């Protein structure tokens, strides 16, 4: 069964074309978890041959196959070959993961809401990271595959009970994955709660536009449309200061990722793990936030979002110990993560865009990953 799952996730050098009903295939087994439950793997394709795969275990995006300038398809999403490997090895990475209830860090693992203080067990130094265990990327999501006109997608639903991970309120999260004919993977989030709570959802995908496992991303280019960042301390927790971008943090024009990493290492840091400020409030429609380009393959990815922040991370902690479905090791700086979200520790900074969700309100957020080849027009 593991071998079959590995075959399903191998990089696609010739993604399927001409599929009439692009979601008709339903799902296939992605292996079995330790408790004996079978995970299901789902596939979305479009007329261009782009392919996205995800699993009901964790709602994980396991594959995004797109062409290079020569038309060769490769998987640009880091991940593993089957659910057993995700279950055993993804805890420290979060490859392809939906993150909740609160993405990124909460300082000193506590916050106060409506006069009540909520405390958590720290899992990142003194801080709480990504909501703590069990993460949303370790739960089974219910999946409904849906044809959406010329779009092809699925709605994933998760119910997080009152007190889950220590957070108040029963939360119902609906997450829609949509693959458009314009080579866009769109993620729409919707959530409601029964009690006042805080909420910060994101996807923690790692991208290497040269193909997963194909070396590091130091030679790729990054542009982030942000004039400022949230200053952070040595534990990557915001200090509360919003500062103008400068030096290696100024990515308003395209820069070689490796040059920025080298500059940060000279400053005593391991690489980028930086919260960029995109706006002073969520936007009504997705806006271009970042662009990554791989000169070798010609692949380009644009990130659009309604969120007010973006965490830029250069996979500083990868060390080559783990291998992806291609069998190649994941080395340091082997990918970038572009996590659209509110700023870290927002519950402890009331002057920042709020992450509070109350009964009767509906949380909505959209992020789009658009893949562009040299023959496509880049939308600004």
Question: What is the SS-derived class?
Answer: mainly beta
Instruction: Say how many strands there are.
Output: 27
Report the top-level CATH class of the domain at 99-137 and 191-372: Mainly Beta
- Helix proportion range: under 10%
The helix/strand order is HEEEEEHEEEEEEEEEEEEEEEHEEEEEEE
Percent of residues in β-strands: 35-45%
Just name the CATH architecture of the domain at 99-137 and 191-372: Distorted Sandwich
Biggest sheet overview: 9 strands, antiparallel
Rg from alpha-carbon coordinates:
20 Å
Distance between the termini: 45 Å
Task: State mean pLDDT (0 to 100 scale).
Answer: 91
Name the features.
disordered C terminus, 380 residues, Beta-galactosidase, Chain A, domain 5, nine-stranded antiparallel beta sheet, 27 strands, mainly beta, disordered N terminus, single chain, five-stranded antiparallel beta sheet, 3 helices, globular
Task: Give an account of the 3D structure.
There is one protein chain. The chain has 380 residues and is mainly beta. It has a domain at 99-137 and 191-372: Beta-galactosidase, Chain A, domain 5 (Distorted Sandwich), CATH 2.70.98.10. 6% of the residues lie in helices and 37% in strands. It is built from 3 helices and 27 strands. The protein has helices at 2-8, 83-89, 257-266, and strands at residues 27-32, 38-45, 51-55, 61-67, 73-75, 98-99, 105-106, 110-113, 116-119, 128-129, 142-148, 151-160, 171-179, 184-193, 197-198, 202-203, 221-224, 228-232, 238-244, 255-256, 273-277, 287-293, 300-305, 309-313, 337-341, 356-357, 363-372. The strands form 7 sheets. It has a 9-stranded antiparallel beta sheet with strand order 11-12-13-14-27-23-22-17-20. β22 and β23 (300-305) form a beta hairpin. It is globular. Residues 1-25 and 376-380 have low confidence and may be disordered.
């Amino acid at each position: 069964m593991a071998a079959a799952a590995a075959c399903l996730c191998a990089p696609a050098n010739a993604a399927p074309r001409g599929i009439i009903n692009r979601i008709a295939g339903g799902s296939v087994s992605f292996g079995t978890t330790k408790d004996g439950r079978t995970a299901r793997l789902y596939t979305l394709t479009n007329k261009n041959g782009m392919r996205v795969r995800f699993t009901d275990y964790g709602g994980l995006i396991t594959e995004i196959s797109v062409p290079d300038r020569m038309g060769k398809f490769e998987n640009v999403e880091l991940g593993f070959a089957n659910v057993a490997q995700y279950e055993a090895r993804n805890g420290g990475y979060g490859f392809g993961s939906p993150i909740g209830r609160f993405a990124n860090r909460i300082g000193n693992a506590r916050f106060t809401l409506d006069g009540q203080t909520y405390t958590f067990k720290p899992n990142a130094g003194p801080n709480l990271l990504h909501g703590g265990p069990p993460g949303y990327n370790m739960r089974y999501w219910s999946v409904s595959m849906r044809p959406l006109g010329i779009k092809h997608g699925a709605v994933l639903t998760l119910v997080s009970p009152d007190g889950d991970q220590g957070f108040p309120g029963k939360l119902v999260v609906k997450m829609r994955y949509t693959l458009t004919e314009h080579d866009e993977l769109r993620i729409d989030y919707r959530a409601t709660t029964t009690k006042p709570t805080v909420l910060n959802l994101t996807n923690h995908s790692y991208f290497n536009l040269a193909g997963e496992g194909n070396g590091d991303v130091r030679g790729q280019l990054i542009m982030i449309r942000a004039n400022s960042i949230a200053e952070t301390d040595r534990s990557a927790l915001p200090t509360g200061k919003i500062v103008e971008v400068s030096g290696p943090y100024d990515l308003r024009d395209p820069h070689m990722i490796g040059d920025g990493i080298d500059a940060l290492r000279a400053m005593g840091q391991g690489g980028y793990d930086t919260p960029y400020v995109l706006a002073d409030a969520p936007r009504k429609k997705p806006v271009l936030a970042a662009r990554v380009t791989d000169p070798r393959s010609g692949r380009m990815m644009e990130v659009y979002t309604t969120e007010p922040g973006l965490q830029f991370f250069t996979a500083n902690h990868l060390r080559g110990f783990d291998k992806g479905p291609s069998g190649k090791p994941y080395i340091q700086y082997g990918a970038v993560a572009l996590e659209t979200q509110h700023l870290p520790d927002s519950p402890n900074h009331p002057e920042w865009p709020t992450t509070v969700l109350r009964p009767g309100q509906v949380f909505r957020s959209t992020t789009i990953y658009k893949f562009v080849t040299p023959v496509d027009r880049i939308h600004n």
